[in-house]
Amino acid sequence: RTRSGLVAPGCGRRGRRGAMAATGAFSLREVLDAFQRCVTERQEVLLEPYLNGWWGLIRFLQRLGAVFAFISKDAVAKVELMEGLCRGSQREHYVSLQAMVQFELCRGPGELRGRPGSGCRTVLRLHRALLWLQLFLEGLRTSSRNSRTSVICTDAYNASLAAHHPWVVRKAATVAFCALPCRDTFLEIMNVGPAEEAVAMLGEAIPYIQSVYGITQELFAQHKLLDLP
Fold first, then answer.
1. Contacts of 161 by beta carbon, 8 Å cutoff, 6+ apart
2. CA proximity to 195, closest of 203, 205, 185
């Protein structure tokens, strides 16, 4: 297990359910709609649309094959764990990110740090990966047609997840990124029409992802949760 919580999910019922939830064609529109519904007027992050948005991002990663398996498999495990909390006996405390943090902090910082299955710890791992995806998608949106996606992806990774991975994982990731398809292939995977439409929709979607990331970052920083082990 790395500092980012990078693990391959186990087999069994939860793994099969997650695999089924992540199947189907990726739709950038669905991701846009999910993250658009995440933030309330009170700047609370609702967990149900947040997790729905993550299932869409996982489908995007899985369309790219084994290159992103080390991230998509981990994300599936984390989203499943959060869904379990959101549907469990204490689900009223897992409606929003803010309610979850308040509830789990009431148990004491020591207990929170000692619980690997806590919602705060799990969301923190998704939060770190969300920054990488946000930066990568923004790089795809603003780059030229001939830009190397391996460079875009590596730059995004180095500015986000790399800080939480050991050297061997960082090395494997940057080598894997060299096999990424061209930019046009990525835009086709968005499943919204021509490349120009994909770029335009990325311009709509990314600010909503940035908003969710920013609120989460501020909340976790306020409560000193950004370095949970």
1. 4, 71, 128, 129, 131, 132, 173
2. 185
Three-state DSSP class for residue 77: helix
Looking at residue 13, what is its pLDDT? 39
**40 contact partners, CB below 8 Å, separation of at least 6:** 46, 96
Length of the chain counted residue by residue: 229
Contacts of 51 (CB under 8 A, 6+ apart): 79, 82, 83, 86
Domains contained in the chain, CATH given? 28-222 (1.10.3520.10)
Which tokens sit at 112?
């929170």
Per-10-residue mean pLDDT of the chain, 229 residues long, equals 38 42 73 94 96 94 79 92 94 96 84 78 95 95 92 94 90 88 89 90 95 97 90
Longest dimension (CA), the chain: 52
Structure tokens at 53: 């948005």
What amino acid occupies position 92?
E
CB atoms within 10 A of CB 175: 11
Give the per-residue pLDDT at 24: 64
User: Which residue type is seen at 25?
Assistant: A
Would you put residue 85 in left (φ > 0), alpha (ψ -120 to 50) or beta? Answer: alpha
